[in-house]
Amino acid sequence: MSGANAIHGIILVGAIIVAGQAAHPWELAVALLAVVLATANLVGGFVVTDRMLEMFRGNKAKKQREELPAGDASGIGALPSGGVPSETRASETRTNETPARESKGIVQ
Amino acid sequence: VSPLDPTIIAVLYLAAAVFFILALKGLNSPRTARRGNLIGAFGALVAVVTVFFSTRLDNIPWILGAIAVGSGVAAPVARRVKMTQMPQLVALFNGVGGGAAALVALLELPHAEDIWVRVAVVFTLLVGALSFAGSAVTFAKLQELMTTRPVVFPGLPALMGAVLLAAVGAATAVVLGGWLALALVLLLLGLAAGVLLVLPVGGADVPIVISLLNAFTGLAVAASGLVLGNVLLVVAGTLVGASGTILTRAMAAAMGRSVAGILFGAFKGGSTAGSTAVSDRPVRSSSPEDVAVLLGYAQRVIIVPGYGLAVAQGQHTAAELAQALEARGVKVDFAIHPVAGRMPGHMNVLLAEANVPYESLKEMSEINSEFRTADVALVVGANDVVNPAAKTTAGSPIYGMPILEVADARQVVFLKRSMRPGFAGIENDLMFEPQTTLLFGDAKESLTKVLGSVKAL
Fold this sequence. Notes:
The complex is a heterodimer of chains A (108) and B (457).
Chain A: H1 2-7, H2 11-20, H3 25-54, H4 60-67, H5 69-77, H6 86-107
Helix pairs in contact in A: 2-3, 4-5
Chain B: H1 6-27, H2 33-54, H3 60-80, H4 86-108, H5 115-142, H6 156-177, H7 180-198, H8 206-228, H9 231-254, H10 259-264, H11 288-296, E1 300-305, H12 307-312, H13 315-327, E2 331-336, H14 346-353, E3 361-363, H15 364-367, E4 376-380, H16 389-392, E5 411-416, E6 436-440, H17 443-456
Parallel strand pairs in B: 1-2, 1-4, 2-3, 4-5, 5-6
Helix pairs in contact in B: 1-2, 1-9, 4-5, 4-8, 5-6, 5-7, 5-8, 6-7, 8-9, 11-17, 13-17
């Protein structure tokens, strides 16, 4: 839906046409407002959709660790209950997990 | 800039339209979605570059400046928004698109000689303004700037009727006379209709309304294409209008509701208001420690995340709990109902953000047969989507709605805030079954406590 939402931002084409043909200052002002709104719809729509889809990609995990250190740290903390030292356990899980998810992304 | 040959322009617009169709097709499947989105963005780029060569345009520096402002505001916001807040941002972007369409139509009115073009103008004005105001209210509800409960007051249906009648009158007059002042009145009426349309919609139904308003904006853009004689706008707008309508109906069906029932249910004092009746039948409530024991010594656990999890923003904790259980050798999956979360696919996005592997997210059709083999079904902040009344009680408001078959699991654990029924306002018999345990509290807090106890096992 978010992708479809971006597509109707193509009203930007219409806004550019009316702005380019505006004869009076008030017409231009209204048309430019339409251009700003339409651009926000178009650009924002595609960017937010891309970000959502990015969440499903494996290499996001790395980026996310930088962005959300707190959440991830506690995630690692969840692992040591198996009795293995947490550092080893965490890095093992990461290295096993990341290539699997990345290769899936490539296949897709 | 000198205009290019009209044939070349037509071919370029056609190419952009084809890119949009490919984009929507790509977005249908998770495998191709990201590429589909990029194809759509490329189509938009082609179209926007083309328009500068399509006809003689003045004010080009102003236009480029306005594009820079629009991008400069929207892109960083879209980059930085939290994933839980994404539905309201989508609603906002949808609304400004509708607003832009309405303004375009307003400016074209003085040039519209043909009566059918004026019909397209008033349609764009009205629907674009409605979508703008409706999306603004949706944004306010999701951002919790206002109550998420349905807002109803006596006389609301009459007021809505009066606004719509006045809009039809004003629209007819604008079509016949082409008066600009009256077109402004029509714009205001469209805004009022948008506000009145969304006010009575309850929190859990808001996803469907976002989808509906998205379709409305698509239709407004298609009509603006008729106004401007621009085929690309007609094609793109119709695509969004059609796909949005289909999606809206599919979502409504997944919740066992009609679109009209969602929009006007609260008008009649109907089901969106929910019931606050609390049953006095006995239930088995439990402590976080007991739930942790159930989960920690299970072989297979299926987590059913619902609206309540999204509201409590407990997706990271849910993901941590799944990780902790998997570390103990428990097989954990997430069962996603088609309308879980606040937007279609929202729950998948939230869980993916919390680093739940994509393979653990199972769609309803995929997971339903597996509840039979599950030791524990952990229902977090969901109710109606697991209510067996949808299958067994013919008179129930949700009868016929597809549900997740959690009743097949050996044990069912509900994390709930209270015994208050879901928005459908009906009791869930599953909660009184002997296999069911309830843990009361905010979804995130409960999950945190259970997680702590699992780690201590």
